[in-house]
Design goal:
The protein has 17 helices and 19 strands. The protein is α/β, with parallel strands linked by helices.
């Protein structure tokens, strides 16, 4: 063996010994975590083995080599890393440099065992966003991260954002900036960065994670903690699997996204810019997820989507086919709740949906946003239905399911809205007396068609919103339930008022004196007092 070969051999032996010692120490630490915290994550061991194999494959240049060594990092391993490397946005680093004779040991020791820091996940927006956050928390937990309860206790922050309204987006951006100011590693996920590339690029030092990339949250958090800025905003054709682990914010409620995106093109909505066109999960995948959640102890299954009525139209099925399959699969003790639907595609399934709603383990509830009672405004919004279509859907369901609750949304002050149009919306609310009414002032969303329309004066918009709110507050919602005995399914706790919270089959909110033994179960309740928002009662023993 010549001098050069001997030198090379010595470096390899020293490197191998160091790696073995490092791996042994790391494995010992991991087993200690299991005993102390009942949590050992197999992926961490795979990470260690991967580092060993990766280091072994690095070709060490002999001392006799006269060629110049390359002074650059190994190229990105992930697709869609955003901008080219710069001082502000560094490339993805694997811990191995081609110009070094020593391998990843020093980098590994600096980095420490992966997944051992804490992460706080902040969520804005809809039920779909909440489900996405629960999936991300499950992945982070299983990798070994501690989930913090507040920003101050975390090393990294994941902000799952919502772009439906200006205030929700502004709130997410403000939270991101506050987290950066506190010196945290920050990842912005969800609809805001996915739907607004310009905004995403303007936020220096913040990693970005798109709505179809949430299953890669561990990679992005890990690199962000290393000081790198990562961007994964490309829209994948396939959505993350429903088999991902979850950490539920409410352990009794499983939120299942049955699809992503929609078939509409509403002129004011930015969500489609982020979620894209309709992409449905298979019926088998949804049923399997529901059964898995039941095995984990949930008592309610919520099906969510940007438009549940459009479910399956991209894969040759529909909502009328899915709902009976999910309801049939669930035990009678587990309640099913259907999420938001727009009128156009649900109109074809009134009879089938009504039959499912009448089942004993299905809440008699539907959220159908009308947005306006004026056909002229609905056309300007590109809502693809008329006020009469909305009436036909709601009345058709109520005829077959008299006790059902219908929630809706209205937008006050849309640019095309005149006084007569506003009055038409007031009249529709008076007609149906919705127990749940979400009232929003119009907010122009950048990049949408409605944002280019001339806005109404701010005082006009505020006046109409105030008038709508007063109308909603003027009528009783749940008073017809007073003095009745109803079965109530309990799933939540109101810490502030020390009450246990549940819902009737018609989805009236019921509160009783706190009793944690009720959670995840149902009980007969004597209802004795109604407010605008809920009914108070006493459990019958």
């Amino acid at each position: 063996m010549d001098k050069g070969e001997a030198s090379k051999h010595q470096v390899q032996v020293i490197t191998a010994s160091t790696l073995v010692l490092t791996a042994s120490a790391a494995c010992a630490y991991l087993f200690w975590r299991r005993w102390s915290q009942a949590e050992l994550v197999p992926i961490q061991l795979r990470w260690l083995l991967g580092s060993l194999l990766q280091a072994r494959q690095v070709r060490l240049q002999g001392s006799e080599s006269n060629s110049a060594e390359r002074d650059e990092d190994r190229g990105p391993e992930l697709e869609d890393l955003g901008d080219e490397p710069s001082a502000a946005r560094q490339p993805w680093r694997l811990g191995v440099r081609r110009n070094q004779k020593q391998v990843a040991v020093e980098k590994l020791s600096q980095k420490g065992v992966p997944g051992t820091k804490s992460v706080f996940v902040k969520t804005y927006g809809c039920a779909h966003n909440n489900s996405d956050s629960e999936f991300m928390m499950g992945l982070l937990r299983d990798y070994g991260y501690t989930l913090a309860d507040k920003l101050e206790d975390a090393d990294a922050i994941v902000v799952n954002s919502c772009t439906v309204k200006g205030p929700s987006e502004d709130g997410a951006v403000k939270f991101v900036n506050n987290a950066k100011g506190a010196g945290k590693a920050v990842v912005m996920a969800g609809c805001v960065p996915t739907g607004d590339a310009t905004l995403a690029k303007s936020m220096d030092g913040v990693s970005m994670l798109g709505v179809t990339q949430l299953d890669r949250v561990v990679e992005v958090v890990e690199e962000t903690l290393e000081g790198h800025t990562v961007s994964l905003l490309g829209h994948r054709k396939t959505m993350p699997t429903l088999d991902l682990p979850k950490v539920r914010k409410n352990k009794y409620v499983e939120i299942i996204p049955i699809s992503g995106g929609c078939l509409g093109n509403c002129s004011y909505c930015k969500t489609k810019h982020a979620r894209g066109t309709l992409s449905s999960y298979t019926e088998e995948a949804i049923v399997a997820r529901a059964l898995q959640a039941v095995s984990e102890g949930v008592s309610e299954i919520w099906l969510t989507s940007e438009d549940t009525g459009a479910y399956g139209l991209d894969i040759g099925t529909n909502i009328a086919s899915l709902l009976p399959k999910v309801a049939d699969a669930l035990p009678l003790t587990v309640m099913l709740k259907l999420g938001m639907t727009n009128p156009p595609y649900m109109l074809a399934h009134i009879d089938a949906v009504a039959e499912v709603l009448k089942r004993p383990n299905v809440f008699e509830f539907l959220h159908v946003p009308v947005q306006s009672g004026s056909d002229a405004v609905l056309r300007a919004m590109v809502r693809e239905y008329t006020s009469e279509d909305f009436r036909r859907l709601v009345n058709g369901l109520r005829e077959k399911v008299p006790g059902m609750a219908v929630a809706t949304d209205v937008i006050c002050g849309f640019p095309a809205e005149g006084e007569d149009d506003h009055q038409a919306t007031l009249d529709l609310v008076k007609e149906f007396k919705f127990p749940i009414l979400n009232i929003a002032q119009f907010y122009p969303r950048p990049g949408t068609a409605a944002a280019r329309l001339k806005r109404l004066a701010g005082n006009v918009v505020k006046s109409r919103s105030t008038e709508m709110t007063r109308l909603f507050e003027s009528y009783a919602t749940w008073h017809h339930l007073v003095a009745r005995e109803e079965r109530v399914w309990f799933s939540d706790t109101d810490e502030r008022y020390n009450q246990t919270v549940g819902h009737t089959k018609g989805y009236a909110k019921v509160v009783v004196p706190r009793d944690d033994l009720l959670l995840g179960k149902s009980a007969m309740v004597k209802l004795h007092r109604a407010t605008k928002w809920h009914v108070e009662g006493q459990v019958l023993r």
